[in-house]
Known about the structure:
Helices cover 73% and strands 1% of the residues. It is built from 14 helices and 2 strands. The protein has helices at residues 6-10, 12-32, 50-53, 58-89, 94-109, 112-122, 129-135, 149-173, 178-185, 190-201, 203-218, 222-227, 235-245, 249-279; strands at 36-37, 43-44.
Amino acid sequence: MKHLKPAHFIGLFPLSMMGLFFLGPLAFMIVVSFYERDPLGFYNVAFVWDNYAKFFSSFYYTISMRSVWSSALGAVLVVLLAFPAMYIIVDMQRRWQLFWVILLLSLMCLSEVILGFAWLILLSESSGIPKFLGWVGLWEDPRSLSPSFGAMLIGFITLGFSLVALMFYPQMAQRDRSIEEAARTLGTSPARVFTKVVLPNYRAGIIGAVVTMFVYFLGVFVMPTMLGRPQDWNMTVIITDKAVGDANMPLGAALSVIMLLFTLLIIGALMFASRQERTS
């Protein structure tokens, strides 16, 4: 205790809150994952591996791979759209920068449910984009675009675009533009400056944004449910269905633990690959 400084005690409160609201439920979830399901209740206290063994069936394994694929694709698409958009915004006049930043912050205030319903209406056949395209003669036989895998990806992009764009804003607004100006002076095209000069300088930030969005999309529930088909649902929807719909808390807890470990493994592999690349 004699080595503790007053600043250390300041950090005890957030650490205790993290232990109370994160580590506590996590430990409880791990314990429940070994219990047996009680058809008349939630579970019976036991120690069995049956809940984890069910994950290796083709059903849950396929859903897990699908969740990883859809989350990774959504994360890459969000970064591919948000990074160049913010690159353009930071070179605008100050008032236009403020306009776009405020707009992005406003989009973050909208809940996932509101965004999901908005896209559900816009992609519907009766009152959305298909009806408009049919009205102007660009679509002879308009039909609803949701639920579908593409509609779910659009929901993912809407959720993550403003967050990713604002993650890049401080770095890009304060960047040193002298290297880009020198490249343009030597006759390099703007597109080549962007790919050969700008992108390499933000490689670490881009990888971090992709990983962040990947983890975020793994836990998204509303967009797959509202905009996706049953064959597009991710593991989060299945876990909720098993834990709440079927009242099988042990199986839901076991699937959650496996997905958590799987996510940590992927993040660790990406961080290791990134560190090896920087070292080389």
